[in-house]
Specification:
By secondary structure, this protein is an alpha/beta fold. The protein is 39% helix and 18% strand. It folds into two domains: 202 residues, Isopropylmalate Dehydrogenase; 168 residues, Isopropylmalate Dehydrogenase. The protein contains twelve helices and 14 strands. The strands form three sheets. It has a ten-stranded mixed sheet, sandwiched between helices. A two-stranded antiparallel ribbon has the order 6-7. A two-stranded parallel ribbon has the order 13-14. Helix 7 links the parallel strand 8 and strand 9. Helix 6 packs across helix 7 and helix 11 packs across helix 12. It is globular and about 65 Å long. The two termini are 40 Å apart. The structure holds 3-isopropylmalic acid (IPM) and magnesium ion. The site of magnesium ion has 2 residues, from helix 9.
Length: 373
């Protein structure tokens, strides 16, 4: 069996705790002979700034490039709020995205039946929810130039960011959305602000043309981002795949994640272009929840988003849909058996720690899970 080289960059806050639980899953698959995975580890974010003087060292970046894929925990924390702009933990993450050309960010929002009570919406509104948000991740206002704060005299300053998209950037993310939709319910909703923004007009024109030329069997609709934010709360099940730009995707994916009850459940994949020589694509998998400094080091964080991110890695980097499904089913089994970290705790369930949750998922994979409560 091919050796798989995985680089772990756990990062800051709860990152190391939740990533430790992913290692248990890998150890299980290795022991079972289902995988032959090597794990290497390095730093990103605030801890990298403290260790190497930069939030993403060149040597770490080289390891990220060489690995089959990267498992990332989280970056950021109050220790680093006042450091120079280029030393911020977030700068490490943005550099990683840009350098590996991780243009396609997949953020699924799926409702688990067992957690319907944890959503702030009525159960009927979210039951069975299964949305895939496809966020463009290397363009738009996150990277557009000019970006600066300048003095314009008379004690006035001006802050500038630039929203910019080219046709090819819009087309490549649209391809990803259409291809994902083809495996799902064959509906793409493209979200923009074409009623105000030129880049939004171009977005709409390009995806419409691409749809017409190549993806006629998939339904394409368009929605303004303000309306989409509202529709996600009103009737989220109308959506299958949502494709949108970097900034709108950042905002809408946080909103969509809360439909499912807890940010602690949402995985993500960030994918680069397929290398025509190797057939592989650079990829980083990370939970959407962030570093949660308030609970860091307390063994309270929910590791399920990280474990589900690893399931995405099995599917998108290793084409092991069988193991991905096994992992996802193990997570469902653990929830059904009543194991809960504090963020998803409910009456009649058993409160467990981060490590107990990872053990429970491992037990489920090994067919020896016991009912928690
Ligand atoms: C995310 C985060 C990042 C982003 C931050 C940490 C830079 O919010 O991955 O959604 O804005 O992209
Ligand atoms: Mg965000």
């Amino acid at each position: 069996m091919n050796t798989v080289n995985i680089l772990f960059v756990p990062g800051d806050g709860i990152g190391p705790e939740v990533m430790a639980e992913v290692k248990k899953i890998i150890t299980h698959f290795n022991a079972q002979g289902a995988l032959n995975a090597n794990i290497d580890e390095d730093h990103i974010g605030g801890i990298a700034t403290d260790t190497y003087g930069t939030p993403l060292a060149d040597s770490t970046l080289a390891k990220c490039r060489a690995a089959d894929f990267v498992m990332l925990g989280a970056v950021g924390g109050p220790q680093w709020t006042n450091v120079d702009y280029h030393l911020r933990p977030e700068a490490g993450l943005l550099r990683l995205r840009k350098e590996l050309d991780l243009f396609a960010n997949l953020r699924p929002a799926q409702a688990f039946d067992e957690l319907l009570g944890a959503s702030t919406l009525q159960p009927d509104v979210v039951r069975g929810l299964d949305i895939m948000i496809v966020r463009e991740l290397t363009g738009g206002i996150y990277f557009g130039e000019p970006r600066l704060i300048e003095d314009i005299g008379n004690g006035e300053r001006r802050g500038i960011d630039t929203q910019v998209y080219t046709s090819s950037e819009i087309k490549r993310i649209s391809h990803v959305a259409f291809e994902l939709a083809a495996q799902r319910r064959k509906k793409v909703c493209s979200v923009d602000k074409a009623n105000v923004m030129k880049s939004g007009m171009l977005w709409r024109e390009e995806i419409t043309a691409l749809h017409k030329a190549q993806y006629g069997t998939t339904e394409l609709s368009h929605m303004y981002v303000d309306n989409c934010a509202m529709q996600l709360l009103r009737n989220p099940k109308q959506f299958d795949v949502i494709v949108t730009d970097n900034l709108f995707g950042d905002i809408l994916s946080d909103e969509a994640s809360m439909l499912t009850g807890s940010l602690g459940m949402i995985p993500s994949a960030s994918l680069g272009p397929v290398n025509p020589k190797t057939g592989k694509r650079p990829a980083v998998y990370e939970p959407v929840h962030g570093s949660a400094p308030d609970i860091a080091g307390k063994n309270k964080a929910n590791p399920l988003a990280s474990i589900l991110s690893f399931a995405m890695a099995l599917r998108y980097s290793l084409s092991r849909d069988d193991l991905a499904l096994e992992t996802e089913n193990a997570v469902k089994a653990v929830l059904a058996a009543g194991y809960r970290t504090p963020d998803i705790m409910a009456a009649g369930c058993r409160l467990v720690t981060t490590s107990q949750m990872g053990d429970a998922v491992t037990a489920a994979l090994q067919g020896r899970l016991e009912k928690a409560a």
